[in-house]
Structures are given as C-alpha cells and as structure tokens.
Write a structure and sequence with these properties.
Layout: E1 5-9, H1 20-29, E2 34-40, H2 45-48, H3 57-71, E3 76-84, H4 96-99, E4 104-108, H5 118-133, H6 138-155, E5 160-162, H7 172-182, E6 185-189, H8 197-205, E7 210-213, H9 226-234
Parallel strand pairs: 1-2, 2-3, 3-4, 4-5, 5-6, 6-7
The chain binds zinc ion (2 copies).
Length: 246
C-alpha cells in the first residue's frame, strides 16, 4: 500500500511552518497525486493562537489553492479546514456557508480552544484535562465526548474526524457506527501516533473507513505516514479500508 493523497497538512495560515506552495512542492516530490491544505479553525486562536485569524481567511486560502491547482497540473490541490468543536451541541467554529466552499471538512476535537460558553468550556476543556488526569468521572466524560462528536457528525457534512481519541476519551465502536452512517472517515494520525491496533480493529469491525494523515506542520513532513501505515497493516486493514492509499 502506498499513500497517494495527504488530506491533513498545515501552513503558516495557522501554526504550520511552510507556505501552501512549499507543502504542494513537497507533496509532488513525494509522488502524491492529491494534497489538502487543512489549517486549524479560528477557535484555536483562543488559548494557544494556533488557528487561522478568522473564518474568512479560509476563503483566502481557497483562492490561493485554486491558483496553485491550475499551476501544478501534476497534483490536485484541495482547500480544507481542521475545524474545532466549540460546544456540547457539536457546533463548529466555521460557519456553514464557508464550509460549503471548501473541498474537504476535517474536524478535530481539540481541547485548547475558545469555547462558546463557560458550560461548554467545563465539558470540553476542564473535564478532558483536570478531571481526566485525576481519573474522575471517566465513564461520564467518555459518554459526553462521544455524544458531542456524534452531534457534530449529524449536524454537518464532515469528511474526516482527525485523530479521534487523542487526549479525549471516546467510545470507539459508537463513534465508528455513527461515522459509517454519515460517510465520515476516521483518521490515523501520524503526528500524534496515539492510535492503537485494538482501536483500529474495533472501528473496522463496525465498517469504518480510514484516512491516513501526516498532520504535517512543516513541508518536510508532508506525505509522511510510515508509522500509521505500519499500524494499519498490523491491525489487518487493507486498501479497501483506507481511502487514500493505492
Ligand atoms: Zn488536530
Ligand atoms: Zn492538524
């Protein structure tokens, strides 16, 4: 199996180190046929200044991407976002009219975001950091996290959930079932490498499909998914289970 598309790369528009053009050229060098520019949504600006300045910036990125797509016929360049969930109702930090303009919508359950309200902050940030570390309310937190993600899947057309279960306790089998229903792919993320064989086996047994993502924050990491690919093979996944390998 060989990667042909990397749908999860960051640029200087959020907290990546390279430009869109540098990511594209790195992808071409690695022999990829498709690349998506998926910078962090604006709620990541809240605590850590990791996101795009505002949601409208995603339209600027789209314009740039369209120009490069014409300029580099050897690769398909897609505009995307790694949007944030900002409340317990599963709402995202990017308005629908902007999401509709993008080629792909990735969603990450990130903890260091600007939540919609104090209550959302407690459920998303406090519960998954302080409470989890103290090992309190694990079952309740797991139930709530899974519920929040499923609400997002039901509300929006989401292509990929990035790093599911990274720093947030999630019920894999429930999430996988919901993802199959909504046609959403679950990512195997190279940067965080938190995924386990057991997780993949459970998710695939529910019929989930996966996307390998470099989550590159610098051009030299674009298309690097070796560890994710090894893990997928160990868990018995085949080409039919992964959308971006050939
Ligand atoms: Zn992420
Ligand atoms: Zn990312």
């Amino acid at each position: 199996m060989k990667l042909y598309a990397d749908y999860h790369t960051h640029t200087r528009y959020s907290h990546g180190k390279g430009s869109i053009r540098e990511n594209i050229e790195a992808a071409i060098e690695k022999g990829l046929k498709e690349i998506a520019i998926a910078d962090h949504g604006p709620a990541s600006q809240g605590l850590t200044k990791l996101g795009v300045k505002d949601a409208a910036t995603l339209l600027e990125i789209k314009k740039e991407v369209e120009n490069y797509d014409k300029f580099y016929p050897e690769i398909k360049v897609l505009s995307a976002v790694e949007a944030n969930i900002i409340n317990i109702d599963g709402d995202l930090d990017v308005p629908r009219f902007i999401l509709k303009e993008l080629d792909k919508v990735l969603v990450g359950f990130h903890l260091y975001i600007r939540p919609s309200s104090w209550k959302d902050g407690i459920n998303i940030i406090f519960n998954n950091t302080i409470m989890s570390r103290l090992n309190l309310k694990q079952e309740e937190i797991r139930y709530k996290n899974t519920d929040i993600l499923i609400k997002a899947l039901n509300k929006y057309k989401i292509d990929i959930i990035t790093h599911p279960g990274y720093r947030v306790n999630i019920d894999t089998s429930t999430l996988a079932k919901a993802a199959v229903k909504s046609g959403t792919h679950l990512e195997i993320n190279e940067s965080h490498m938190h995924t386990t064989e057991e997780y993949l086996r459970i998710a695939v047994s529910e019929g989930a499909k996966f996307s390998l993502g470099s989550d590159a924050h610098s051009p030299d990491k674009v298309g690097c998914v070796d560890n994710s690919l090894d893990l997928a093979i160990k868990a018995g996944l085949t080409k039919d289970d992964i959308i971006n390998v050939c």
